[in-house]
Amino acid sequence: MDDDAELRALLRLGLEEAAHDVREFGRAEDCLEALRTGAEPDVVVLDLCLPGIGGEQALAVLGARFRDVPVVVLTSKGDVRTMAVSVKDGAHDFIQKPVDQDRLTATVRNACQQGRRARSAAQLEHAARRGSLPGLVGGSVRMAALARHVERVGASDVNVLVQGESGTGKEAIAAAIHAQSSRHTGPFVALNCAAIPDTLQDSALFGHERGSFTGATGRHPGCFERAHGGTLFLDEVAELSTSAQSKLLRVLQERKIMRVGGREEIPVDFRLVAASHRSLRDSVDAGRFREDLYYRIVVFELEVPPLRERDGDVDLLVDHFAATFGPTLVGAVPAVAPEARAMLRRYAWPGNVRELQNALQRAILSAGGGTVGVAHLPRTLIEAALSAPSEPAVPAAPAAGSRSGALVLAPGLPLAEIERRAIEHALARAGGNMRRAAADLGIARTTLYRKLRGSARG
Questions:
Q1: What is the pLDDT of residue 217?
Q2: Please, are residues 383 and 342 in contact by the beta-carbon 8 Å criterion?
Q3: Are 139 and 267 in a shared domain?
C-alpha cells in the first residue's frame, strides 16, 4: 500500500521480477477490505504515510485482525519512536525511504517464509484442538508435512515405522497416529525395547504365568494383551533380541500369543507402531535385524526431523512447555524474555525436543515464578549458543583491540553482566553493525538500543 502511484509501480515491477504476485492499493481501506473479503497475501508492504485512516492505524488493524500476515513497513521517518511503534504493532520489519529494492525483495522473501510458518502452526493448532494430533507442536514446513502424513496413515490400520534422532518426539507421533485411528478408544501401550534386558523381553512382550520363572509370583499380562483393541508402540525396536524378533514375527503373522509358562494361545488384535533412532535398514544389512520382520513392520515409514531443522519451532515449543509445566512447577505460566528466546533459537539442540523440555523446566524452576531470562538457562547452553554462527556465510569479526571474538562467561555472573557481554559479543561479530548485531541476537533493534543505553547508564 502506497499513495504514490509511480513508487507503487516501481516496487511492483521489482517484486514481480523476484517471482512474487503483487496487488497494489493506494488506500489502506481498500487493502483491508480485500483482506476481509477473502484475499490471502503472504505479506503486506505498508507505507505509514497514507491518506484516509493512515498507515499507523492500518498497521494496528492488521496486527489485531490478520495476525498471520506479516507486514513490512515503509517510512520516511527513521526515528526510534516510529520503529518502536512499528514493532509494537506487529511489523515484521521496516524500511526507510528511499527504498532499496534489493533489501525490500530480501525482506519480503523472509516475511513470506514467516507467514507460511505461521499458517502451518495454525493448521497444526487446529488439528490439535480437534484432538487428532495431541502433543504434536510445530509450525515448520517439515512438521506440517509430517502432520499431513500422520493424518493420512492414522486413518488406515497398517503397521508404521517412525524414525528419527533420540529426543525428537517419536512417541508423540505414535500417540497422534493412535488418536487419529479407528482404535482411538482402545489402549495405547508403549514399550522401550532398549530399556528391557534380553532375558526379560519375552515376559514384557508376552506376559507370564505364576511360577514360570524365579520371581514370577503372579500372572502378568504382556504388552500385546494390554494393547488388545488399540495400538502397541515398540520404541527402539532394533534393540530386540534375535529370539524376541522371531516371536514378534510370528505374532504379526498369526495374531496369537502365549504367555511365558502358559499352555494356551491367546488371540490379540492390535496395530503396531515401531520406532528407532538408527536406520532399521542398516540394521538389516548388518545382520542385526531380521529382513522378513523388517518388511512386516515397515508398511509405512515416517521420518521425524531433528529440532535444528525445524525452522521457527523453538518458540512454539517454548510456549507449549511453559504453559504445560509452569503451573505445576511455579504455580503460573512464566514469561520468557526475548533474549532467552534468542539463546534458545541459536542453540543446536543435539538432544532435540527432550533436551529443550528439560532445559526449560530447569529454567522455570530457577526463575522461581518470575520471567525466564538468559541467566536461568544452563551455562553450557549459553556458551554453545553464543559461539554458534547465526549466518554462516558472514565471517565473525572480532572487536577492535580484542584478542579474540570468543565470549567469556565466568561462574556467578549476574544477568545484567551476561546481557552486556552478549551484546558486546554480537557487535564484535557484526563488525559494529547494529542492525546485524540485533538480528544475530534475535531481538528488535529498538530493544538493542534500549539495552545499550541501560548498559551505558550502569
A1: 67
A2: no
A3: yes
β-pairing verdict for 230-235 and 188-192: parallel
- Alpha-carbon span 115 to 137, nearest angstrom: 17
Domain end: 275, 305, 335, which one? 305
Domain-embedded: residue 127: no
Give domain status of residue 203, yes or no. Answer: yes
* Residue 370 C-beta-side C-alpha neighbours within 13 Å: 7
Give how far Cα 431 sits from Cα of 379, 384, 405, 428, Å. Answer: 25, 21, 11, 5
In contact, 121 and 139? CB cutoff 8 Å: yes
Query: Is the domain of 173 the same as that of 255?
Result: yes
The predicted-structure confidence for 45-90, as pLDDT tens digits, reads as follows 888 777 777 677 777 787 777 777 888 888 776 544 555 555 555 5
| Helices (H), ranges, 256-404 | 280-285, 291-297, 313-330, 338-346, 352-367, 379-387
- What sign has the CA pseudo-torsion 298, 227, 254, 262? positive
Burial classification of residue 150, based on how many CB atoms lie within 10 Å of its CB (0-12 exposed, 13-18 middle, 19 or more buried): buried
Range of the domain at 188: 133-305
Tell me, what CATH number does 88's domain have? 3.40.50.2300
Does the CA dihedral 290-291-296-299 come out positive or negative? positive
C-alpha cell at 12: 511492483
Q: Is 136 helix (H, G, I), strand (E, B) or coil?
A: coil
